[in-house]
Specification:
This protein is an alpha/beta fold. The protein has two domains: 259 residues, Aldehyde Dehydrogenase, Chain A, domain 1; 193 residues, Aldehyde Dehydrogenase, Chain A, domain 2. It contains 15 helices and 25 strands. The strands form seven sheets. It has a seven-stranded mixed beta sheet, sandwiched between helices. The chain has a six-stranded mixed beta sheet with strand order 11-10-9-12-13-24, with helices on both faces. Helix 2 runs antiparallel to helix 4, helix 2 crosses helix 6 and helix 9 packs across helix 10. The protein is globular, with a radius of gyration of 23 Å. The protein binds nicotinamide-adenine-dinucleotide (NAD). The site of nicotinamide-adenine-dinucleotide has 29 residues, from helix 7 and helix 8.
Length: 491
C-alpha cells in the first residue's frame, strides 16, 4: 500500500464564489459556506451562498412563469441552445474537470471522462428535442381519427448527489429542458462549485431567464423544493434514506416522481472466465472513484474452483493501489468526499469487521502527503451473504469475496439483496450468460464488463430499493418528462 508521498506541486486555487441563479439573476442573500478540498483540507475550493426558503419559492415561481413560452418554443430553438451548452461544457473540460477533482476528490482522468459525458448528453438530448413525436391511431368508431401526442409537464425539481456532480445534473437537466419543461436544480451542498460552472454555461448559452434555476444548499433546501405545490416533476438521485423521505413527503401530491438510489452490486466470476479481465473489473469496479459509485462492484462472487487463487491475486492488487491527492497523476484512488463520509465509512468497516464470517484486510485511516480524507482500501475474504459487509451500501473503497459452489448458487447470492441496480458476470460460457440474463434481478446487466460505466443513450436505473419510476437517460425518459394527450378528431 502506497500513500502518495511523491506529491508534485499541485498548488492551491482562489475559492470560486457560488451563487443561486433565479430568473436570470445571481442571488446571494444568505450566509456563505466554505467547501474544502477533500485531498487537501488546507485549500478552500468554493464558497457558496445557500438559498433561503424564500429563494426556493421564487425560483419555482420564475420557472412556472417561464414555462408556457419555453414549452411553445420551436424544437429547433431548444435543440440549438442545448447543443451550445454541450459544446461549452466540452470546451471548458479541463477547467471543470480540475475543479471537480479538487471539490469531489475523484482522479483527473475520471473527472475528465465525466465532463465529456455531460457535454455529450446535452448534444444527445438536443437531437431528442427534434425527434419528439406522437402517434396516429384509427378509432374504433366510424369517421374518427385519434392522435396521441406528448407534451411537456411543467416545472421539474432536480435534486442531485455529490458523487457525479456534473454528469448527474446534466442527465436530468438535458432531457427536462429538451422536452419543454423548466427546471430548478438543487445540487449537493458538497459540490456547489461544479454546479456554479454548469450554471455559468447555461447562462452563456443564452437560455431564457427562468428556464433554468439553481438553488444551493442541503436537505432543507431540497425538502422545500420538492414540497412546493407548483413543482410537477421531482427527479432525485441520492441515498435510499433520502429517497424514502422524499417519496413520503410527496404522498398525495399530484406530481411525478423518479428516484435513483443506492446499490450493492454483485460481480460473478466463473472458473472459465478471462481472469485478467475479471481482476481488472473487480479492482476498477470496487475501488476506483474511492468506491463512491452507486454501481460499484461491492460483492465479488467467485466460483469455488478458482476462489482461493483469485482471492490471493486480488489482494495483491488491492495492496498495490496508490491512494493520494486526486490531482496527483500517480494516484489510483483519491480521498473520500468529506470527513463526515470518512467517519461513516470507517464506522461501517468496524461493524463489517465485527460481524464477518471471513477475514478482513485494510480499511484503516491513512495519512497523505497533504491533509485529506484518505482511507486504505479494504478487502473481505471468505464472507457469507448474511454478513454486514454484504448487506449495507458502504459507499467507500471496500469489496467482499463470497465463494459460490455453482452458477446457480452464484446467481442466488447475486440476487440476495434488496437492491437491484447493476450486476455483472465474467464467464466464457454462453449457457451461463443466458442463465444469468434470465435470472438476475438487477436493472442493468454487464456481461464480461465492469458493473460500473454506462452509456447515456440507453436507460439507466435499478429495481427494488435501487430506484423507482421511469428509468433515467435514453430516449425512454421522455415518458417521465412529458405526458400524453389524446386528441379525437371527427370528420
Ligand atoms: P443524499 O441522499 O445524502 O443527498 C442527495 C441529495 O439530496 C443532496 O443534494 C442533498 O442535499 C439532498 N437532500 C438531502 N435530504 C433531502 C431531503 N429531505 N429532501 C430533499 N433533498 C434532500 O445522497 P449523497 O450522499 O449526496 O449521495 C450518495 C448516495 O447517492 C449513495 O447512496 C448512492 O448510491 C446514491 N447514488 C445513486 C445513483 C443512482 O443513479 N442510482 C447515482 C449516484 C449516487
Amino acid at each position: 500500500m502506497n500513500v502518495q508521498a511523491s506529491l508534485i506541486n499541485l498548488g492551491r486555487i482562489e475559492p470560486l464564489a457560488c451563487q443561486n441563479l433565479i430568473d436570470g439573476e445571481r442571488v446571494a442573500n444568505g450566509a456563505a459556506k466554505e467547501r474544502r478540498n477533500p485531498s487537501d483540507t488546507g485549500e478552500v475550493v468554493s464558497v457558496a451562498t445557500f438559498a433561503s426558503l424564500d429563494d426556493v419559492a421564487e425560483a419555482v415561481a420564475a420557472a412556472r412563469e417561464a414555462f408556457p413560452k419555453w414549452a411553445r418554443l420551436l424544437p429547433q430553438a431548444r435543440a440549438d441552445l442545448l447543443d451550445t451548452v454541450g459544446s461549452l461544457i466540452v470546451s471548458r473540460r479541463e477547467e471543470i474537470a480540475t475543479l471537480l477533482s479538487r471539490e469531489e476528490g475523484k482522479t483527473l482522468p475520471e473527472a475528465r471522462a465525466e465532463v465529456t459525458k455531460a457535454g455529450q448528453l446535452f448534444k444527445f438530448y438536443a437531437g431528442e428535442a427534434l425527434r419528439l413525436s406522437g402517434r396516429h391511431v384509427r378509432s374504433l368508431r366510424e369517421g374518427i381519427d385519434i392522435d396521441v401526442v406528448r407534451e411537456p409537464v411543467g416545472v421539474a425539481a432536480l435534486i442531485t448527489p455529490w458523487n457525479f456532480p456534473i454528469v448527474i445534473p446534466a442527465w436530468k437537466l438535458a432531457p427536462a429542458l429538451a422536452y419543454g419543461n423548466c427546471a430548478v436544480l438543487k445540487p449537493s451542498e458538497l459540490t456547489s462549485g461544479c454546479a456554479q460552472l454548469l450554471s455559468e454555461i447555461m447562462v452563456e448559452a443564452g437560455l431564457p431567464n427562468g428556464v433554468f434555476q439553481m438553488v444551493m444548499g442541503g436537505g432543507e433546501v431540497g425538502a422545500a423544493l420538492v414540497s412546493n405545490p407548483e413543482v410537477d416533476l421531482v427527479s432525485f438521485t441520492g441515498s435510499s434514506v433520502t429517497g424514502s423521505k422524499i417519496a413520503a413527503s410527496m404522498n398525495g401530491r399530484n406530481a411525478q416522481l423518479q428516484l435513483e438510489l443506492g446499490g450493492k452490486n454483485p460481480l460473478i466470476v466463473m472458473a472459465d472466465a478471462n481472469l485478467e479481465g475479471a481482476l481488472d473489473a473487480a479492482i476498477k469496479g470496487a475501488f476506483y472513484s474511492t468506491g463512491q459509485r452507486c454501481t460499484a462492484s461491492s460483492r465479488i462472487i467467485v466460483d469455488a474452483a478458482i476462489h482461493d487463487r483469485f482471492a490471493e491475486t486480488l489482494l495483491e492488487r488491492v495492496k498495490g493501489l496508490r491512494v493520494g491527492h486526486a490531482l496527483d497523476p500517480q494516484s489510483n484512488i483519491g480521498p473520500l468526499v468529506s470527513e463526515q463520509q470518512r467517519e461513516r465509512v470507517l464506522q461501517s468497516l468496524d461493524n463489517a469487521k465485527a460481524e464477518t464470517s471471513g477475514e478482513a484486510w485494510g480499511g484503516s485511516p491513512l495519512e497523505g502527503a497533504t491533509p485529506g480524507h484518505f482511507v486504505q482500501p479494504a478487502l473481505f475474504i471468505g464472507t457469507s451473504s448474511a454478513d454486514f459487509v454484504n448487506r449495507h451500501e458502504i459507499f467507500g473503497p471496500v469489496a467482499s469475496l463470497i465463494r459460490a459452489d455453482s452458477l446457480d448458487h452464484a446467481i442466488e447470492i447475486a440476487n440476495d439483496t434488496p437492491y437491484g441496480l447493476s450486476a455483472g458476470i465474467y464467464t466464457a460460457s454462453h449457457a451461463a450468460i443466458g442463465e444469468f440474463r434470465r435470472r438476475s434481478t438487477a436493472g442493468m446487466l454487464m456481461i464480461n464488463l465492469q458493473t460500473v460505466g454506462t452509456d447515456y443513450h440507453v436507460p439507466f436505473g435499478g429495481n427494488g430499493e435501487s430506484g423507482f419510476g421511469v428509468r433515467e437517460m435514453g430516449p425512454e425518459v421522455v415518458q417521465f418528462f412529458t405526458r400524453s394527450r389524446t386528441i379525437y378528431v371527427a370528420g
